[in-house]
Recover the amino acids of this structure.
């Protein structure tokens, strides 16, 4: 077949241009280390690369969230640990307060200790995070959560709102906390059951909640707002009997009497437990006829109030004889301190489990990140040895076609037929 | 006697023929590189003598160009297809360069979208941090400029393509005129005794080839050497000596889109055109416009979702948040040729159902129909005045005549008009509208507050606190184990509800609307559980440390906001689509180039000039010339000898 001369030259030129373009593309791949530089190089790969990059950036902020949440929760746990230590030392103080042989001077120094503890507790409850925001004020982060009024009462200014933050694909953990339910608004006594002695009691008996014997019975009593009055009387035979009456008003008030009903009664044997409505009340000492104790099923208190109660118990100078009121007061403080411990420890446990969750999720997210990065690299990164080999191949081919062109374009019959 | 003169005459005819042949060779070599030139050769015949006698010499009957109509038409078609493919590819390259994927698309719009949500996430980590809020606004501005520059670049490309279309149409008109003029000349000369007008034919065929590069054509050879030319759709561009003009002008909707109309009828034939530069430009333009619409849909979804979320939370001053972004809405343009006086407006009501693409809305006898301009898919809309379509509400006012058309562009302008309206970072609504704090409760019911719940999703009988009460402290106070009141901050009973220990309960607070969308409420779910009379929950506006609302905003990165896709995956699939288009265009361009090269090779093997061949021909004719000259010399010698003999005798 005949080839026109201009076509022949043009064809060779196109070949060389193609080789140059190929070499140029490879050159860019070597310079950038990437093979996928334009969506049209590999459309499916391009979408994959963008999705992978987006996932990686999401994982990155999951990681950063995990760090932020860890920091905030660790701050909380650290503060609560100190609270636990503080409460443990106050348990000792309370026992000393109960001891009627403790001297007045020593009691005064214990008052100072307790007052110091109260101040320290307020400080711990008002602890600030690295960003200067209060840890336990809920969402009201800029407000001091606990402030002490001139009368010594401590009030909560925050709210119960807590923040959640995403630490992994569709997984969030709490990243902030509220003092409500930790420092304040915690069950008083034993599971919310408290006992108080009537101020007019003449015997030296005092009562403590021995335990809960029937949780569901207690729960319904609590919801109904039921309160109980244990009263002692002398039976015709001269022996001591007890009666437990229930009602919904405050014991002793007219409302209480109106709704009262006898839930338990019988002869009282010293040192025995009275069990009624799922509650076990232990009477220590010897109550006299006419003495009474009030039992409340659902009471709440705060750590601050408990310490204040301790202070007031410490400030009471024991009588030489009957100290039942003081005993009762101190027993209540001890029960409340135990409740406070439980509250601080369960908050710690809950943050601890969040921290643990963060840690395990974080390692998952790290490995997800690595996998995704590998996937991205797989699609986008250049296989450099391969690209280098291709590059030198294409350069060689280009040189060869240039040389061939130089030789062939010199050939012309006209050169040979000139005279 | 007659012998010698015959010898002489034959020699002279040979001399002339060789000279003419050498002229043809010299013309061939001179035009070796002339585009459209077809190699010419002399057609020589013997001058026949008497029977039984030798011939009386030679004669050149014509100079013929080597031309094959079929091969030529193949070449024109290949050229047309190649030009279309190259034009498309150039434009596809521009398009895909706007959506970079290098280094994980770090410089693309997708990464600006991720950055914005990452910044929202940083605010969620510490809502009180002013620097975090500043970063979010800065990232919002970068996002806006990414949308703007992408939108502007796409629009500029469309404008450029329209400009090229204009100039291509002028070239087409110029070429068809010249071809018609050539046809006229050829018709006159083709039957002249001097033979076919080779140069004119070459010129005309070259012009036709050039025309084919601008637009897809069919060639119909006629008598007298002429050609008639039609567009792919059948509109005549040249018939004999007449040419018909095309014109490129903005369409009747006033959005600046150039359309091509056929001169004699004024009909819009844009959709019937394919091949050549015009075909390539039309394909590229529809791809650009579609990309513009898709980007716009992402812009609209993002802006709407973020702005709505803003209106559901509280800023640092305790107010409901204002819009962060502003974005242009859909445009509906009536055709200037409409008979009726109807106008139409459109607003987006559900970005989730929005699909990219432009629509032509036509009033028919039974109501309005919307036709997707890219896919041709048609949807019946009804008679209005309010039409619901693809997540938009179209409002018709005035009266539309049958056949009236409107161009609906849902999101074409969105990317360009995307802007940040918020300037004060403290106005970022990071906090939840309300948080619940339990009182000294006897029961174990928990209250969970969720912002931005649809009122229609609430269980029947849920007490809803009016929007006018929004913002104050509220209290949910149980009056019994099964009933509760909602109290205002001054303890007035605003609403009452009932509670069940097994199913819990619900309270809703209506958001002020605007800014919040109507029908959205703050939902307070009371978990199933036990309740004591007097139990309560205090509802207070979320404090400055609350991240309830900004978390929801950050979470939007993972929500399917647009046609069942997240914004990022919508962007990735758009890039995938553009990549596929680019890859297809590159493959098509390469294939078309191959086909053209093949067609050129075939055509050149017939019509091209091979210089070696010409050199050989030259040698051959030179020798013929020398031989003929020798014959004449011989005749002269014979004649001289004869004369000498006669004189001597």
């Amino acid at each position: 077949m005949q080839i026109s001369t201009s076509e022949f030259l043009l064809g060779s030129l196109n070949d060389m241009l193609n080789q140059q373009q190929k070499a140029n593309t490879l050159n860019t791949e070597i310079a950038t280390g990437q093979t996928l530089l334009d969506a049209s190089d590999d459309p499916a790969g391009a979408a994959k690369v963008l999705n992978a990059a987006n996932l990686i950036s999401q994982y990155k902020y999951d990681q950063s969230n995990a760090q932020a949440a860890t920091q905030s929760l660790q701050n909380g746990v650290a503060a609560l640990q100190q609270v636990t230590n503080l409460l443990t030392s106050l348990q000792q103080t309370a026992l000393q307060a109960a001891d009627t042989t403790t001297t007045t001077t020593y009691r005064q120094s214990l008052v100072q200790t307790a007052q110091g503890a109260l101040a320290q507790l307020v400080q711990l409850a008002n602890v600030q995070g690295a960003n200067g925001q209060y840890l336990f004020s809920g969402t009201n982060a800029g407000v001091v959560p606990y402030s002490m009024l001139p009368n010594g009462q401590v009030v909560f200014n925050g709210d119960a709102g807590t923040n959640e933050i995403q630490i992994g694909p569709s997984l969030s953990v709490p990243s902030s906390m509220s003092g409500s339910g930790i420092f304040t608004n915690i069950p008083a006594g034993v599971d919310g059951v408290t006992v108080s002695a009537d101020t007019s009691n003449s015997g030296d008996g005092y009562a403590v909640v021995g335990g809960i014997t029937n949780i569901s019975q207690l729960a319904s009593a609590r919801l109904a707002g039921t309160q109980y009055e244990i009263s002692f009387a002398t039976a015709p035979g001269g022996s001591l009997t007890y009666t437990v009456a229930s009602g919904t008003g405050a014991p002793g008030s007219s409302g209480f009497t109106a709704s009262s009903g006898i839930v338990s009664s019988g002869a009282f044997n010293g040192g025995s437990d009275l069990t009624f409505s799922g509650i076990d009340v232990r009477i220590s000492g010897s109550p006299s006829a006419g003495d009474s104790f009030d039992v409340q099923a659902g009471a709440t208190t705060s750590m601050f109030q408990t310490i204040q109660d301790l202070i007031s118990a410490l400030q009471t100078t024991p009588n030489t004889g009957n100290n039942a009121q003081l005993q009762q007061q101190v027993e209540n403080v001890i029960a409340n301190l135990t409740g406070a411990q439980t509250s601080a420890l369960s908050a710690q446990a809950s943050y601890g489990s969040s921290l643990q969750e963060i840690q395990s999720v974080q390692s998952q997210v790290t490995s997800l990140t690595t996998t995704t990065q590998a996937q991205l690299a797989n699609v986008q990164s250049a296989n450099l040895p391969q690209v280098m080999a291709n590059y030198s191949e294409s350069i060689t081919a280009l040189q060869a076609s240039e040389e061939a062109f130089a030789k062939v374009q010199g050939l012309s019959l006209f050169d040979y037929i000139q005279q | 006697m007659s012998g010698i003169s015959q010898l002489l005459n034959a020699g002279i005819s040979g001399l002339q023929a060789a000279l003419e042949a050498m002229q043809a060779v010299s013309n061939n070599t001179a035009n070796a590189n002339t585009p459209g030139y077809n190699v010419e050769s002399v057609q020589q015949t013997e001058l026949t003598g008497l029977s039984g006698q030798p011939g009386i010499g030679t004669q050149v009957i014509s100079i013929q160009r080597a031309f094959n109509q079929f091969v030529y038409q193949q070449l024109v078609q290949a050229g047309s297809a190649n030009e279309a493919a190259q034009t498309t590819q150039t434009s596809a390259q521009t398009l895909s360069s706007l959506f970079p994927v290098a280094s994980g698309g770090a410089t693309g719009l997708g990464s600006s979208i991720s950055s914005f949500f990452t910044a929202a996430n940083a605010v969620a980590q510490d809502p009180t941090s002013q620097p975090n809020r500043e970063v979010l606004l800065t990232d919002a501005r970068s996002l806006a400029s990414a949308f703007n520059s992408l939108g502007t670049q796409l629009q500029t490309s469309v404008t450029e393509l329209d400009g090229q279309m204009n100039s291509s149409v002028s070239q087409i008109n110029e070429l068809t005129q010249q071809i018609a003029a050539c046809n006229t000349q050829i018709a006159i000369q083709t039957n002249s005794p001097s033979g076919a007008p080779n140069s004119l034919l070459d010129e005309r065929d070259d012009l036709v080839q050039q025309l084919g590069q601008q637009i897809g054509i069919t060639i119909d050879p006629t008598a007298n050497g002429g050609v008639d030319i039609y567009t792919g759709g059948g509109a005549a561009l040249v018939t004999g000596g007449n040419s018909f003009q095309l014109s490129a002008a903005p369409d009747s909707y006033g959005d600046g889109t150039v359309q091509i109309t056929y001169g004699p009828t004024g009909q819009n034939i844009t959709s019937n055109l394919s091949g050549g530069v015009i075909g390539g430009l039309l394909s590229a333009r529809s791809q650009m416009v579609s990309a513009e619409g898709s980007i716009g849909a992402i812009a609209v979804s993002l802006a709407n979702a973020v702005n709505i979320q803003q209106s559901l939370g509280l800023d640092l001053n305790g107010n409901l948040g204002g819009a962060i972004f502003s974005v242009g809405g859909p445009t509906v343009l009536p055709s200037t040729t409409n008979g009726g006086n109807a106008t139409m407006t459109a607003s987006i009501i559900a970005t989730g159902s929005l699909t990219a693409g432009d629509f032509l809305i036509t009033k028919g006898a039974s109501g309005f129909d919307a036709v997707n301009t890219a896919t041709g898919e048609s949807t019946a809309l009804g008679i209005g005045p309010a039409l619901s379509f693809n997540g938009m509400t179209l409002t018709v006012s005035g009266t539309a005549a049958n056949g009236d058309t409107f161009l609906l562009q849902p999101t074409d302008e969105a990317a360009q008009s995307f802007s940040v309206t918020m300037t004060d970072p403290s106005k970022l609504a990071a906090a939840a509208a309300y948080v619940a704090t339990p009182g000294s409760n006897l029961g174990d019911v928990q209250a969970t507050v969720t912002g931005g719940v649809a009122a229609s999703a609430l269980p029947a009988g849920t007490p809803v606190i009016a929007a006018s009460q929004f913002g104050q402290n509220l209290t949910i106070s149980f009056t019994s184990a099964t009933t509760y009141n909602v109290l205002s901050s001054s303890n007035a009973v605003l609403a009452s509800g009932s509670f069940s220990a097994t199913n819990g309960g619900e309270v809703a607070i209506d958001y002020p609307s605007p800014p919040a969308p109507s029908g959205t409420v703050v939902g307070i779910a009371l978990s199933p559980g036990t309740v004591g009379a007097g139990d309560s929950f205090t509802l207070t506006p979320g404090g400055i440390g609350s991240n309830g609302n900004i978390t929801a905003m950050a979470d939007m990165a993972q929500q399917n906001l647009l046609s069942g896709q997240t914004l990022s995956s919508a962007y990735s699939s758009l890039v995938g689509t553009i990549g596929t288009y680019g890859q297809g265009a590159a493959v098509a361009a390469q294939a078309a180039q191959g086909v053209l090269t093949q067609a050129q090779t075939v055509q050149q093997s017939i019509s091209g000039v091979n210089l070696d061949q010409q050199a050989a021909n030259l040698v051959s004719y030179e020798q013929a010339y020398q031989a003929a000259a020798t014959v004449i010399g011989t005749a002269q010698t014979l004649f001289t000898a004869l004369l000498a003999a006669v004189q001597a005798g």
